[in-house]
User: Fold MMPL family transporter from Corynebacterium suedekumii.
Amino acid sequence: MASFLYRLGSLAYRKKWPFLAVWLVLLIGVGALAGAFAKAPSTTFTIPGLDSVTTMEKMQERFPDAEDATNAPTGNIVVQAPDGRTLTDPEVQAEVNEMLDEVRSAGVLENPETVVDPVLAAQGMQAQMVPELEAQGTPPEKIAADIAAVSPLSEDETTGVIGVTFDAESVMDISSEDMAAVTGVLDRYNDGDLTVVYNGNAFGAAATEISFTSEAIGLAVAAIVLLITFGSFVAAGMPLISAIIGVGIGILGVQLATAFSDDINEMTPVLASMIGLAVGIDYALFIVSRFRNELVQAAGGNDLEPKDLAERLRGMSVATRAHAMGMAVGTAGSAVIFAGLTVLIALAALSIINIPFLTAMALAAAATVAIAVLVALSFLPALVGLLGTRVFAARVPGVTAPDPEDETPTMGLRWVRRIRQRPVAHLVVGVVLLALLAIPAVNMRLAMPTDGTATPGTPPRIAHEITEDAFGPGRNAPMIALVDTAELPAEQRPAAVGTAVEQFLATDGITNAQIVATTEDLDTAQVLLTPDFGATNPRTSETLETLRADEADYAEQTGATYGITGVTPIFDDISDRLQDVLLPYIAIVLVLAFLVLLLVFRSIWVPLIAALGFGLSVAATFGVTVALFQEGWFGIIGDPQPLLSFLPIMLIGLVFGLAMDYQVFLVTRMREGWSRGKTAGNAAANGFKHGARVVTAAALIMISVFAAFMLQDMVFIKTMGFALAAAVFFDAFIVRMMIIPATMFLLDERAWWLPGWLDRILPKVDVEGEGIREYTADDSEVRAAAAAQSGSTAVSAR
Assistant:
């Protein structure tokens, strides 16, 4: 592989224009297709096969007019009267009706005539329901409870809820223009005396806008780190340009994928850009850094002053520089491939869980990483070749950027010497510190995003809070029990449905239960359940478990069955599924990555230590994230909430790949030194000296890129940005730069132990560049001339 990559790197450097043109054409082409065919991303999360989803599908079969609770183009307008007044006041009611007239006249709603003043709607509902319920012999207190559970007007008449349905097939089909036609009216009236906010499926996407400020800030900090790393404005720009090209193609590809899949949600491109930008910069940084090292050796060796490198480059031939790039891609490029492969394994393995939206997010991020690897191996050498001798020009004043090849002890060498003197102490301190930070993780609570977890101050969050205060927390977390009596004789069905309602009312945690729809022959009934608590309250999950556990007794007693569905049960089931698959997913990733690292390092201990170190860094990350974002420690987060259900599994997928990146970047140079005859201890120290600077720069870049995403409005992205930044910090600076070298020194020669039988069957992968070690610039010229001659001969033959 090293030989192939050597040829690719040197060829891209010499024949730059075809490589540059291919990537630029690809970027423009994907962008044009995305602009022509991309659709709005989904705002829903569903998983096929869940009890709640199966019940929802059954309900839609029995009731053709029933909508998918998670994807219906519906929403609520929540109106609250000014302080000291009610919605029944003539002036207030007139203003509400004036607003609704404008909403109806927008022409974007289905059945606009149903959008009515909540006061009139409540009066009409009472006039219809009371006689019907009285005729059925319903007690007055139950009639009052049933009306209160569905009334669009609060008991104190200060708050009203108006349901709206957009004229679209699903949430994804609502155009931004149609949405703006409604929200523009509502926002304008909200600026007056009335409080007018909105929530629900339809308005979820309108409340959150994805900003590119995070990417800009991440790039700015990355530029500063690169300037310090290379001491050159030109060289610092190479990884940035390379990463932007890769992420640009990846994000545009994700947008294009919306034309073919409904599983691309609004967070998919953000996560793809987050991981793509970080690894894209890091992979390019690793190759450019190795290219610089090769040039230093070719230009004068260890005695060369870095500030003189730009001048020495002017006297180098193209063949010499192409050879240096070939060596860089052949060695560092091999590490980049395997580092990228571990990221791809961790992300692609998420598809095994069979959660469509999570699979889409993972594959989008994986594709962006794959593009970043390809760009670093082909576009980057061509870009450097375009600049030629000017690649390290435009020196940064005051920055010396010493090269690790220099004999002068670097900061990394001084640090690893300290670890070598006291490896046990450094190992114990690192492990104990991460273990203590992990303690809060035992209290981790998970939940899916709802209006109640939206960013404070946004319309959905305000609407959720107003509704909870006016109608009770259960109004925001309704459930539907689908009672199936199809197997019973017709005369037994009413009693079976009645028994179900009585059982629901007797369930702890249920405020009210009432029949809201039945089929003509009463073979199926929908029962609306109003819980005592909100959607993210653990008590609501306990109530759902109780309802489902009682279904067996109900079936045995009546012969009928029931299932529970609705947004709250669906989201609860998603959380349970994600929690159930977490450990199997970790096992799959660890095994696959162990095999890859076994192939790279040809050692049993190195992959094992890498995996255990990853476990420590992730556990510490979970602990700190729970403490700050869920428990609200130190008051840093003003709105503590349960962590999003798929944050742990997505975090593990992303962080594992990044952790293995650092492992590959750092330990590859250790392996390279050991394979060339150094003792294990000297190889570990020397390899750390060479890898520490680039890994430090890479980690700082990733931390800055991820931390910048805390500026996004989406709570999940904000939390994920912090968690990724914290994980990179723990893994790079505590695990890889303290625990790993300490363990390598303690193991000494045993670190590279591999059973003989396994050594014989493992394929040889030349990551250290053994096959290209003896290549010279003259060899490069000979091979280039031979390739050109071969090409001309083939043309002549034609």
Observations:
- The first helix runs from residue 2 to 14.
- Residues 784-798 have pLDDT under 50 and may be disordered.
- The chain has three domains: 1-42+212-396, 65-204, 410-462+578-693+710-756.
